[in-house]
C-alpha cells in the first residue's frame, strides 16, 4: 500500500472514507483539549474534510497536509474559498484566511512546517495506515510537533482477522503503547458503530468500535 493507492482512490472518487458531515465526536469532545482561540490545529492526511471548516469556525487556524492535490483543491472549491497558492518546497501550499493545506507527503514535513501548531486532530490518518507505517507515522509526528501539543485521536477497532484495511483496526492497547511519551492518554468514549455501517457488516465484521482518545501532557 503506497502513495499511489490513495492518489488513485481520489482520482477515481472512491472516497467512502470522506465524511460529508462534521464529525460528531469532534464537536462533542474538542473542548476537552482546552485550546485557546487563535491557536493552530494540525490535521494530518486531511483530504477535503469538513471538520477543518468546523475547527476554523471555532476561531482556530487550521493546517492540513494532504497527498492528493485534487482533494485539497476540492476542499477550497466546494466551500467557495478561493485559495492563494504558493511553493513551500517540497509542498504546494493552498491557503484561504488561516485555513491552509500543504499538498505533499506527510513524511516530508519538517519541524518548521508545524512550528506554530498547538493541537492535533487525527480522525483519518492513523487508521489509514498499516501497522508498520503507523509506527513510522507516530514517530515522525511526535518528532516534528511542538512539545506538549495535545491530540484528539479517533480510531476504529475490529477483529483484525475479519477484514483487511484500510481502514485498519487500531486497538486501545496500541494507542497506549504508541503514544507512551505523553503522560495522559484517556479513552474519552467508545461507541459500537457496526449497525450504522452496513458496508462493514457486508465485509464480514462482527464488531466495530470507534474510540475517541485525548492524548496530552497534564503539566501542559
Notes on the protein architecture:
The structure is a single chain. The mean pLDDT is 92. The protein contains seven helices and nine strands, in the order H-H-E-H-E-H-E-E-E-E-H-E-H-E-H-E. By secondary structure, the chain is of the alpha/beta class. It has a nine-stranded mixed beta sheet with strand order 3-4-5-2-1-6-7-9-8, sandwiched between helices. It is globular. It starts with a helix and ends with a strand. The chain has a single domain, classed as Rossmann fold, CATH 3.40.50.150.
Main attributes?
Rossmann fold, alpha/beta, single chain, 220 residues, 9 strands
How much of the residues is beta strand, in percent?
Answer: 25-35%
* SS class: alpha/beta
CATH architecture: 3-Layer(aba) Sandwich
Strand neighbour order, sheet with most strands? 3-4-5-2-1-6-7-9-8
Tell me the layout of helices and strands.
Blueprint: H1 3-11, H2 24-29, E1 40-44, H3 51-57, E2 61-66, H4 69-78, E3 84-88, E4 91-96, E5 99-103, E6 117-122, H5 131-144, E7 151-157, H6 172-178, E8 184-192, H7 198-202, E9 209-216
Parallel strand pairs: 1-2, 1-6, 2-5, 6-7
Antiparallel strand pairs: 3-4, 4-5, 7-9, 8-9
Task: Briefly summarize what is shown.
The protein has 220 residues and is an alpha/beta fold.
